[in-house]
Every structure is written in C-alpha cells, then in structure tokens.
C-alpha cells in the first residue's frame, strides 16, 4: 500500500510533516483508513485494554449569553425554551450517575457567568457527598476568578474546545468580540489552575480547510491537553449555518486515530455528534482509537431543549453498553483520570 510508509512514520515518530498529514486527511481510501484505525487501536488497547471510560453527562442549563453561529442554543435563537436545573435537580442527576457506578460527572451548559458561579456550591456538595467522583465542567469562557472558585470548590477537569486553530476561521464561526486568542488564554488559565484540560474542534464546520485541521493538530500537539473532544459539525436549522452540510464522519475517525497515535494517553471521547451523523458511530469511534463515552443523565424533560444540533443521538447508557459489548469492549466506570506517560 502506498500509504504504508506514511503510517509507519506516524507510528514511529508519533508525528508527520504538514504535507503528509494533509495528504492522509484528504485521501479517500477505505483500506488506508482501516490500517490507520488498526494502528491507533493498538496504542489504545496497550494502555486501556478493551475498556472505555464512561462519564455521566448532565446538561444542567441551556441559558447562553453567547452567539456562536453554529450552536442551537445561541442567544439569538428565540425558538429555544430555556431552563436551568435547580441545585436539587443537579444533585439528583449526580446521584443517578453515582448509583450506576459511574465516577465522573460532567456538568455542561451554555455560557452564563452568574449561574456558573453559583454552580460552585453544587460542585462542592457533589464532592463532599461522593468524595470518590471526579467533576468535569464544560461552561464556556468565564471570568478567571470564576474558574478559580470552581477549581477551589473541587472541580477536577474542564472542557473548552478551541473549535478551530485558525484565527480568521475562528472569527467566521463566532460573533464579533470573541477571539481564538482569548480562548487560548482561557485554556492556559484552566491548566494553570490545575484542571485536567480538554480542547478540540468541530470537523467540517463551515469554511474549514484541510490546512485548518493540520493547524488544529499542531495546536493540540503543542498544548498536550489531557482530553481531546472532536466531533463533526452538525447543522441546526435555526442557526445561520443551518443549511451547511454536516462534517464528515470518516474524517472525524481519521483524526481520532492520528491524535491517539500522537498523544497515546489522551482521553478521547467518541462523541454524540459522531453518533448523530454515523450509524454505529459510538463503536466506530472506539475502534478508531477513542476511549471515552459520555451517556446522558439530563432529565428527559430538558433533554429536548438542549439542542446544540438537529437529530441528536440518544446517548442512552444501556444502548452504549450494548454497543460496546458488540465490539468486545467493556465500560470502565472508574474516575479514569489522565495518566502521564
Ligand atoms: N457552552 C459550552 C458547552 C456547550 S457547547 C462551551 O462553549 O464549551 C459544547 C460543544 O458543542 C462546543 O464546544 C462545540 O464544539 C459543540 N457544538 C456546538 N454546536 C455544534 C454543532 N452545530 N455541531 C457540532 N458540534 C457543536
């Protein structure tokens, strides 16, 4: 196979030139993809076995001050019925997660600085009720003092995707006033505060080029995040990007594999967005080198309203466990912290 030497080089040096990366990302050959996934899987299996970490996800509020052009819960989408779970409701979701045996609770929401600050009390209550759980947050860009409060109240990890490493592409995806530069400052601050930090991008977002994806890989290689969140762009009809095509699942899977080889210990979820655009996407992601899945524990009444994009995959715990079993993998319910090499 023509690409054999490129894959050998990737595995041996855990790196590739820009040109080789662009060629690998653009090539359209099922055999190459299979071989790439199989090499990545070896890296994952040698570290994690045939096991996948589960994280219990609670989308605790869809109130958002921000206006990202791709996102269904953006401020200027009037069709969203807005909710914020009470402290008691969040704690009861946390309890359900704990009772399933899952030891990471992920609290995600729109960007809302005042309720994010009040979430600190919920985080400390979760940590005192269940000292053996890890709390991961995904709350967007917040004042650094709020990040510090959340950290000192016990939050362990923070996910903040950079979305694209090209500043001018970033500007086309976000409203005026937001910048890649500030997003990266947030990521550095989160790391400085001692959070295990997650970054990542959408694949196939409007105006994205293969060059942009190479830049994403370079940024991830230099920041070396503990977690890498990557999913295909999925259009949401009430947003300015509602009529753009979805991102490619094949390209998403290739990126899982390349990044698994480059950063073998990273926590890489097989994302809901991937499962939304690809039948069996959850297991396909795992077979490409991902090692995390995030089933939903958002109450059914609110799930529909947390509508980042259309036709969102169901993400149910039982279905995920079944899908993992069908490919010979098991759920690992432990905290699953990042382990340095
Ligand atoms: N407000 C928080 C968390 C919610 S958005 C934050 O900004 O981090 C979480 C992620 O969902 C975003 O980082 C983005 O990459 C992804 N997302 C949003 N809209 C999407 C869409 N239309 N298609 C695919 N992914 C999307």
Description:
The chain has 14 helices and eleven strands. It has 341 residues and is of the alpha/beta class. The strands form three sheets. A six-stranded parallel sheet has the order 2-3-4-5-6-8. Strands 10-1-11 form a three-stranded parallel sheet, covered by helices on one side. The protein is globular, with a radius of gyration of 19 Å. 48% of the residues are buried. Bound molecules: S-adenosyl-L-homocysteine. S-adenosyl-L-homocysteine (SAH) is lined by residues 70-71, 108, 110-111, 138-140, 160-161, 163, 202, 231, 233-234, 236, 273, 308-309.
Strand runs, count = 11
Radius of gyration: 19 Å
Main beta sheet strand tally, sense and closure: 6 strands, parallel
Strand content is 5-15%
Please provide a brief summary of the model.
Helices cover 45% and strands 11% of the residues. It is built from 14 helices and eleven strands.
Helix-strand layout with pairing:
Elements: H1 4-13, H2 18-26, H3 30-48, E1 51-54, E2 56-61, H4 87-99, E3 104-109, H5 113-129, E4 134-138, H6 144-152, E5 157-159, H7 167-173, H8 180-192, E6 196-199, E7 202-203, H9 210-223, E8 227-228, E9 231-232, H10 249-262, H11 272-277, H12 281-287, E10 292-293, H13 300-303, H14 317-326, E11 330-332
Parallel strand pairs: 1-10, 1-11, 2-3, 3-4, 4-5, 5-6, 6-8, 7-9
Helix pairs in contact: 2-9, 3-10, 4-5, 5-6
């Amino acid at each position: 196979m023509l690409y054999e030497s490129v894959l050998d080089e990737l595995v041996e040096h855990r790196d590739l030139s820009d040109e080789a990366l662009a060629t690998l990302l653009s090539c359209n050959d099922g055999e190459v993809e299979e071989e790439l996934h199989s090499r990545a899987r070896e890296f994952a299996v040698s570290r994690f076995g045939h096991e996948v970490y589960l994280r219990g996800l609670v989308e605790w509020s869809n109130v958002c001050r921000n206006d990202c052009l791709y996102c269904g819960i953006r401020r200027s989408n009037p069709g969203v019925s807005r909710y914020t779970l009470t402290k008691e409701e969040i704690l009861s979701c946390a309890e359900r997660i704990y009772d399933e045996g899952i030891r990471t609770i992920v609290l995600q929401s729109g960007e809302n600085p005042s309720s994010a600050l009040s979430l600190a009390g919920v985080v400390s209550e979760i940590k005192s009720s269940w000292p053996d759980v890890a709390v991961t947050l995904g709350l967007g860009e917040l004042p650094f003092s709020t990040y510090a409060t959340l950290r000192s109240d016990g939050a362990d990890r923070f996910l903040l995707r950079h979305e694209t490493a090209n500043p001018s592409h970033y500007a086309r995806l976000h409203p005026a006033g937001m910048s890649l530069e500030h997003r990266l400052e947030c990521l550095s601050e989160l790391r400085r505060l001692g959070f295990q930090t997650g970054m990542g991008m959408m694949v196939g977002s409007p105006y994205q080029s293969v060059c942009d994806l190479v830049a994403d890989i370079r940024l991830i290689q230099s920041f070396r995040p503990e977690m890498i969140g990557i999913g295909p762009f999925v259009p949401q009809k009430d947003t300015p990007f509602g009529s753009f095509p979805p991102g490619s699942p094949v390209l998403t899977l290739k990126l899982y594999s390349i990044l698994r080889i480059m950063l073998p210990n990273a926590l890489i979820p097989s994302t809901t967005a991937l499962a939304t655009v690809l039948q069996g996407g959850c297991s396909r992601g795992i077979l490409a080198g991902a090692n995390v899945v995030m089933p939903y524990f958002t109450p059914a009444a609110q799930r529909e309203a947390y509508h980042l994009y259309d036709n969102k995959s169901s993400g149910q715990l039982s279905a995920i466990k079944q899908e993992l079993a069908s490919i010979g993998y098991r759920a690992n319910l432990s905290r699953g912290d990042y382990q340095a090499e």
